[in-house]
Write a structure and sequence with these properties.
46% of the residues lie in helices and 19% in strands. With 300 residues, the protein is an alpha/beta fold.
Length: 300
Protein backbone atom coordinates (compact mmCIF):
# COMPACT_ATOMS: atom_id res chain seq x y z
CA UNK A 1 0.00 0.00 0.00
CA UNK A 2 2.80 2.44 0.91
CA UNK A 3 4.59 1.65 -2.35
CA UNK A 4 1.36 2.22 -4.26
CA UNK A 5 0.98 5.68 -2.69
CA UNK A 6 4.61 6.48 -3.42
CA UNK A 7 4.27 5.46 -7.06
CA UNK A 8 1.13 7.55 -7.38
CA UNK A 9 2.99 10.52 -5.91
CA UNK A 10 5.90 10.03 -8.31
CA UNK A 11 3.49 9.86 -11.23
CA UNK A 12 1.79 13.05 -10.12
CA UNK A 13 5.11 14.85 -9.82
CA UNK A 14 6.15 13.58 -13.25
CA UNK A 15 2.93 14.80 -14.82
CA UNK A 16 3.34 18.17 -13.13
CA UNK A 17 6.89 18.46 -14.45
CA UNK A 18 5.76 17.60 -17.95
CA UNK A 19 2.99 20.17 -17.71
CA UNK A 20 5.42 22.86 -16.57
CA UNK A 21 7.82 21.95 -19.36
CA UNK A 22 5.00 22.21 -21.87
CA UNK A 23 4.08 25.63 -20.52
CA UNK A 24 7.71 26.65 -20.83
CA UNK A 25 7.70 25.60 -24.47
CA UNK A 26 4.59 27.70 -25.07
CA UNK A 27 6.27 30.68 -23.42
CA UNK A 28 9.38 30.18 -25.55
CA UNK A 29 7.26 30.16 -28.69
CA UNK A 30 5.95 33.59 -27.67
CA UNK A 31 9.43 34.96 -27.10
CA UNK A 32 10.63 37.47 -29.66
CA UNK A 33 13.79 35.39 -30.17
CA UNK A 34 11.91 32.19 -30.94
CA UNK A 35 13.45 30.41 -33.90
CA UNK A 36 10.03 29.59 -35.40
CA UNK A 37 9.35 33.26 -36.10
CA UNK A 38 10.61 35.29 -39.03
CA UNK A 39 12.59 38.47 -38.41
CA UNK A 40 9.55 40.50 -39.38
CA UNK A 41 7.31 38.71 -36.92
CA UNK A 42 9.87 39.15 -34.16
CA UNK A 43 9.85 42.95 -34.49
CA UNK A 44 6.28 43.45 -35.78
CA UNK A 45 7.70 44.51 -39.14
CA UNK A 46 9.06 47.74 -37.64
CA UNK A 47 12.43 49.40 -38.20
CA UNK A 48 13.28 51.90 -35.48
CA UNK A 49 14.52 55.08 -37.13
CA UNK A 50 15.54 58.62 -36.22
CA UNK A 51 14.44 62.10 -37.32
CA UNK A 52 12.57 62.15 -40.66
CA UNK A 53 14.95 64.63 -42.29
CA UNK A 54 18.02 62.43 -41.85
CA UNK A 55 19.63 61.00 -44.97
CA UNK A 56 19.73 57.54 -43.43
CA UNK A 57 15.93 57.60 -43.32
CA UNK A 58 15.77 58.35 -47.03
CA UNK A 59 18.22 55.50 -47.66
CA UNK A 60 16.07 53.18 -45.53
CA UNK A 61 12.95 54.11 -47.49
CA UNK A 62 14.95 53.24 -50.60
CA UNK A 63 15.98 49.90 -49.07
CA UNK A 64 12.37 49.06 -48.24
CA UNK A 65 11.52 49.64 -51.91
CA UNK A 66 14.63 47.91 -53.31
CA UNK A 67 14.02 44.76 -51.29
CA UNK A 68 10.22 44.70 -51.65
CA UNK A 69 9.60 44.95 -47.92
CA UNK A 70 5.96 45.88 -48.38
CA UNK A 71 4.91 44.89 -44.86
CA UNK A 72 7.60 46.91 -43.14
CA UNK A 73 7.21 50.28 -41.43
CA UNK A 74 10.01 52.75 -40.72
CA UNK A 75 9.22 54.61 -37.50
CA UNK A 76 10.51 58.14 -36.98
CA UNK A 77 11.75 59.73 -33.78
CA UNK A 78 15.14 61.00 -32.72
CA UNK A 79 18.62 59.59 -32.28
CA UNK A 80 18.12 59.61 -28.51
CA UNK A 81 14.80 57.75 -28.76
CA UNK A 82 16.37 55.18 -31.06
CA UNK A 83 19.29 54.46 -28.74
CA UNK A 84 16.91 54.29 -25.77
CA UNK A 85 14.87 51.65 -27.60
CA UNK A 86 18.08 49.80 -28.46
CA UNK A 87 19.24 49.79 -24.83
CA UNK A 88 15.88 48.48 -23.65
CA UNK A 89 15.96 45.67 -26.22
CA UNK A 90 19.58 44.70 -25.54
CA UNK A 91 19.05 44.68 -21.76
CA UNK A 92 16.26 42.12 -22.25
CA UNK A 93 17.97 40.42 -25.21
CA UNK A 94 14.95 41.14 -27.36
CA UNK A 95 14.96 41.59 -31.15
CA UNK A 96 15.21 45.06 -32.67
CA UNK A 97 16.22 46.52 -36.04
CA UNK A 98 17.48 50.10 -36.14
CA UNK A 99 18.90 52.61 -38.59
CA UNK A 100 22.56 52.57 -37.55
CA UNK A 101 25.66 54.51 -38.45
CA UNK A 102 29.27 54.49 -37.40
CA UNK A 103 31.12 56.09 -35.86
CA UNK A 104 28.63 55.93 -33.00
CA UNK A 105 29.07 55.12 -29.33
CA UNK A 106 26.45 52.35 -29.51
CA UNK A 107 28.95 50.15 -31.37
CA UNK A 108 31.27 50.55 -28.38
CA UNK A 109 28.57 49.92 -25.78
CA UNK A 110 26.76 47.03 -27.47
CA UNK A 111 27.63 44.02 -29.62
CA UNK A 112 26.01 45.02 -32.91
CA UNK A 113 26.27 44.14 -36.59
CA UNK A 114 25.21 45.68 -39.88
CA UNK A 115 22.92 43.63 -42.10
CA UNK A 116 24.47 42.88 -45.49
CA UNK A 117 23.12 45.09 -48.26
CA UNK A 118 23.51 43.20 -51.56
CA UNK A 119 21.29 45.71 -53.43
CA UNK A 120 23.54 48.58 -52.36
CA UNK A 121 20.68 50.71 -51.03
CA UNK A 122 22.99 52.29 -48.45
CA UNK A 123 25.99 52.66 -50.72
CA UNK A 124 29.49 51.70 -49.66
CA UNK A 125 31.83 53.40 -47.22
CA UNK A 126 31.08 57.08 -46.77
CA UNK A 127 33.01 60.15 -45.69
CA UNK A 128 32.20 62.99 -43.32
CA UNK A 129 32.73 66.33 -45.07
CA UNK A 130 33.03 69.82 -43.69
CA UNK A 131 30.64 72.04 -45.62
CA UNK A 132 31.17 75.81 -45.60
CA UNK A 133 29.42 78.87 -46.95
CA UNK A 134 30.66 80.28 -50.24
CA UNK A 135 32.08 83.33 -48.47
CA UNK A 136 33.88 81.42 -45.73
CA UNK A 137 37.36 81.47 -47.28
CA UNK A 138 37.10 85.19 -48.11
CA UNK A 139 35.50 86.42 -44.88
CA UNK A 140 37.10 84.07 -42.35
CA UNK A 141 40.27 82.67 -43.91
CA UNK A 142 41.79 81.57 -40.60
CA UNK A 143 38.79 79.40 -39.69
CA UNK A 144 38.63 78.14 -43.27
CA UNK A 145 42.25 76.96 -43.08
CA UNK A 146 41.70 75.18 -39.76
CA UNK A 147 38.59 73.44 -41.10
CA UNK A 148 40.52 72.35 -44.17
CA UNK A 149 43.14 70.82 -41.89
CA UNK A 150 40.58 69.15 -39.62
CA UNK A 151 40.92 65.38 -39.80
CA UNK A 152 40.46 62.76 -37.12
CA UNK A 153 39.46 59.11 -36.86
CA UNK A 154 36.68 56.99 -35.40
CA UNK A 155 38.63 56.31 -32.22
CA UNK A 156 39.10 60.04 -31.61
CA UNK A 157 35.42 60.79 -32.08
CA UNK A 158 34.44 57.72 -30.05
CA UNK A 159 36.30 58.99 -27.00
CA UNK A 160 34.30 62.20 -27.02
CA UNK A 161 30.99 60.48 -27.73
CA UNK A 162 31.36 57.93 -24.94
CA UNK A 163 32.33 60.65 -22.44
CA UNK A 164 29.19 62.60 -23.36
CA UNK A 165 26.88 59.60 -23.22
CA UNK A 166 28.34 58.72 -19.83
CA UNK A 167 27.13 62.06 -18.53
CA UNK A 168 29.93 64.54 -19.19
CA UNK A 169 28.97 67.95 -20.52
CA UNK A 170 29.74 68.06 -24.28
CA UNK A 171 31.96 71.14 -23.92
CA UNK A 172 33.90 69.52 -21.07
CA UNK A 173 34.26 66.26 -22.99
CA UNK A 174 35.59 68.21 -25.98
CA UNK A 175 38.09 70.09 -23.82
CA UNK A 176 39.29 66.88 -22.19
CA UNK A 177 39.92 65.32 -25.59
CA UNK A 178 41.79 68.44 -26.77
CA UNK A 179 43.96 68.43 -23.63
CA UNK A 180 44.90 64.80 -24.28
CA UNK A 181 45.44 65.22 -28.03
CA UNK A 182 47.12 68.61 -28.30
CA UNK A 183 49.55 67.40 -30.96
CA UNK A 184 46.69 66.55 -33.29
CA UNK A 185 44.96 69.87 -32.60
CA UNK A 186 48.24 71.70 -33.26
CA UNK A 187 48.39 70.08 -36.69
CA UNK A 188 45.05 71.73 -37.52
CA UNK A 189 46.07 75.21 -36.32
CA UNK A 190 49.76 75.27 -37.24
CA UNK A 191 50.72 78.48 -39.03
CA UNK A 192 47.22 79.98 -38.71
CA UNK A 193 46.99 83.48 -37.26
CA UNK A 194 44.69 84.12 -34.32
CA UNK A 195 41.76 86.52 -34.61
CA UNK A 196 40.24 88.99 -32.18
CA UNK A 197 36.63 88.14 -31.41
CA UNK A 198 35.41 87.37 -34.93
CA UNK A 199 32.05 85.59 -34.85
CA UNK A 200 31.62 82.09 -36.24
CA UNK A 201 28.42 80.05 -36.47
CA UNK A 202 28.18 76.27 -36.68
CA UNK A 203 24.91 74.49 -37.42
CA UNK A 204 24.58 70.86 -36.39
CA UNK A 205 22.13 68.02 -35.98
CA UNK A 206 21.68 66.24 -32.67
CA UNK A 207 23.57 63.13 -33.75
CA UNK A 208 26.10 62.01 -31.17
CA UNK A 209 28.87 62.03 -33.78
CA UNK A 210 28.11 65.60 -34.82
CA UNK A 211 27.68 66.84 -31.26
CA UNK A 212 31.18 65.51 -30.58
CA UNK A 213 32.87 67.02 -33.64
CA UNK A 214 31.10 70.38 -33.37
CA UNK A 215 31.97 70.83 -29.71
CA UNK A 216 35.61 69.94 -30.33
CA UNK A 217 35.97 72.31 -33.27
CA UNK A 218 34.10 75.07 -31.43
CA UNK A 219 36.69 74.86 -28.65
CA UNK A 220 39.53 74.90 -31.18
CA UNK A 221 38.18 78.02 -32.89
CA UNK A 222 37.54 79.71 -29.55
CA UNK A 223 41.18 79.13 -28.65
CA UNK A 224 42.04 80.90 -31.92
CA UNK A 225 40.05 83.97 -30.85
CA UNK A 226 36.65 83.34 -32.39
CA UNK A 227 33.32 83.84 -30.66
CA UNK A 228 31.58 80.62 -31.64
CA UNK A 229 27.84 80.04 -31.77
CA UNK A 230 26.41 76.54 -32.20
CA UNK A 231 22.83 76.19 -33.46
CA UNK A 232 21.09 72.81 -33.33
CA UNK A 233 18.68 72.17 -36.20
CA UNK A 234 17.49 69.24 -38.32
CA UNK A 235 19.38 68.04 -41.36
CA UNK A 236 17.47 70.05 -43.99
CA UNK A 237 17.70 73.42 -42.20
CA UNK A 238 21.35 72.67 -41.42
CA UNK A 239 22.25 72.54 -45.11
CA UNK A 240 19.94 75.47 -45.90
CA UNK A 241 21.65 77.69 -43.32
CA UNK A 242 25.08 77.13 -44.85
CA UNK A 243 23.78 77.47 -48.40
CA UNK A 244 22.09 80.81 -47.72
CA UNK A 245 25.03 82.14 -45.69
CA UNK A 246 23.20 82.44 -42.35
CA UNK A 247 25.69 79.92 -40.90
CA UNK A 248 29.38 79.53 -41.62
CA UNK A 249 29.82 75.77 -41.61
CA UNK A 250 28.54 72.33 -40.72
CA UNK A 251 30.66 69.30 -39.83
CA UNK A 252 28.10 66.62 -40.68
CA UNK A 253 28.19 66.33 -44.46
CA UNK A 254 27.86 62.55 -44.85
CA UNK A 255 28.60 61.86 -48.52
CA UNK A 256 28.08 60.53 -51.11
CA UNK A 257 24.87 58.77 -49.98
CA UNK A 258 23.42 60.04 -46.69
CA UNK A 259 23.19 63.71 -47.64
CA UNK A 260 23.10 63.26 -51.40
CA UNK A 261 19.69 64.96 -51.68
CA UNK A 262 20.89 68.10 -49.88
CA UNK A 263 24.19 68.23 -51.74
CA UNK A 264 22.34 68.08 -55.05
CA UNK A 265 19.66 70.55 -53.97
CA UNK A 266 22.21 73.18 -52.95
CA UNK A 267 24.83 72.41 -55.58
CA UNK A 268 26.85 75.58 -56.27
CA UNK A 269 25.72 77.27 -53.05
CA UNK A 270 28.29 75.82 -50.67
CA UNK A 271 31.95 74.86 -50.51
CA UNK A 272 33.08 71.32 -49.74
CA UNK A 273 35.89 72.44 -47.44
CA UNK A 274 37.39 69.01 -46.78
CA UNK A 275 36.97 65.48 -45.48
CA UNK A 276 37.32 65.11 -41.72
CA UNK A 277 36.82 61.33 -41.59
CA UNK A 278 36.85 58.46 -44.06
CA UNK A 279 35.37 54.97 -43.98
CA UNK A 280 32.15 55.80 -42.15
CA UNK A 281 29.06 53.68 -42.70
CA UNK A 282 25.27 53.61 -42.52
CA UNK A 283 22.83 50.71 -42.70
CA UNK A 284 20.31 48.53 -40.91
CA UNK A 285 21.76 47.34 -37.63
CA UNK A 286 20.81 44.56 -35.22
CA UNK A 287 22.24 43.02 -32.04
CA UNK A 288 24.62 40.11 -32.68
CA UNK A 289 22.27 37.70 -30.90
CA UNK A 290 19.70 38.06 -33.69
CA UNK A 291 19.97 35.20 -36.18
CA UNK A 292 19.82 37.31 -39.36
CA UNK A 293 22.69 38.56 -41.48
CA UNK A 294 21.23 40.32 -44.53
CA UNK A 295 18.45 42.71 -45.45
CA UNK A 296 17.35 39.88 -47.76
CA UNK A 297 16.41 37.94 -44.60
CA UNK A 298 13.70 40.51 -43.88
CA UNK A 299 11.76 39.35 -46.95
CA UNK A 300 10.97 35.99 -45.35
Amino acid sequence: MNWTKKLAGISAVSLLALGLAACGDDDASKDGNSSDKTAGEMVDYKITGIDPGAGIMEATDRAISDYGLDKWELTTGSGAAMTAALKKAVDKEEPIIITGWSPHWMFTKYDLKYLDDPEGSYGGAEEIHTIGSLDLAKDKPEAHQILQNFKWDEEDMGEVMVAIIDGEDPADAAQSWIDENQDKVDSWTEGVDKVDGDEFTFVYVAWDSTVASTNVMAKVLEDQGYKVKMSQVEAGPMWTAVADGSADALLAGWLPVTHKTYAEKYDGKFEDVGTSMEGVKIGLTVPEYMDIDSIEDLKK
